[in-house]
Amino acid sequence: MGDFNCVRRSCEQEGVGVIEVGKREMDDFNGFINNMELGDFPLLRRKLTWYRSNEFSRRYIDRVLLSREWLVT
Length: 73
Hints:
By secondary structure, the protein is α+β, with helices and mostly antiparallel strands.
């Protein structure tokens, strides 16, 4: 669980001054999640989790990644 500073899809960021995350960075992050066999636990009531103080830049970077084993224990 934490702030991963990376989005999984381009739709997970919006606003003025957002640094567009490149396809390679998203592919690497998604590859890591898949290779580690993790699930991205969905958040309720929030589409984006990080807001710049100007409130014009928003991203979904705070995530909870879980393994299947953790869910069954």
